[in-house]
Design goal:
By secondary structure, the protein is an all-alpha fold. It has a single domain, classed as Rhopdopsin 7-helix transmembrane proteins. It is built from 15 helices and no strands. Helix 3 runs parallel beside helix 13 and helix 4 runs parallel beside helix 7. The longest helix is centred in the middle third of the chain and has 34 residues. The N and C termini lie far apart (62 Å).
Amino acid sequence: MSSTEREMENSTSASSSAGISLLSDSEKISWAVAFGLVAATVILSNSLTLTVFLKTKLRQRQSTFLLINLTIADGLVGFLSIPLFIYMLMFEGQYSKVLYNVYTFQDIVLGITSVSTLAFVAFERFYAVCYPLLYRGTLPRAHFVMIASAWLFGVVIAILRVLTSLGLIHLKTFTYIMVTSIATPLLITCVMYFAVWLSTNVKPRYGRIPDKERKLSKTLFIITSIFIISWTPFPVANIFNTFSKKLASFSGFITFTYATKLLHYGNSLINPIVYTLRITEFRKKLTQIVYKDSCTSKTQSCCKKKRRFSSMSGAFLCPARKE
């Protein structure tokens, strides 16, 4: 890679050439293990979350459509983004520019899709709480349009990043675009939740807000707040990488950048935890799925013992299992 290409890598990935060259082999392995553990947890937690959403009545609620989309985006982070990141971390200088562009493209698509989806979630909560009568008449098509828009927005920004890598767009110009594409959805999200707070705590527009809507809005606000706290430090670090090359090559800042990237990816496993703590139906179904095999095997064992005992007394306490 040329020096210019290496500088471009600095702006969007903690696996920058400058950063990795300052890491020892043991440090690379340590970071790789940390990111690998996060990837495994992200895949497992979001797979379980998707299963719960699809196997319960939650899937019938329009508000769940956006959460399913967010779960898919988070799961793909574990399947695609983190493994590619680990590969680039461990094989610094040995991967092609094509691989780097593939990594950058999907990383930006998933990131922008997530932040855009959260903005749509906030807007949906605003509409459901402040205009409940109109919200009840909303067709599922509206949610599918929001989902498609979130992915399309992510793809457009990712394409601009590839064009930047090819030298067709100036790096600083793209940085401004990237900052705007992140800041705008976050600003919309904050405004929407502030409006929801006013509606639920000052004077409801259409009478008393149902407790279910209040709790769901609070849950989604918690998810959004955690997202902002854990997700934004890495883009901020990238801004410093872009505009301060001396700082970007400082070993302490390199460690900080990797830590923010780990936190950045770690956000993808937070949502299932919040769902479990805040949504009763989700928690019950998740518990049932996790312990299903264990409970089934224990029940069968119990039934066998009971059949043996009851056969001696001439009665069966539980029916024989049909093969």
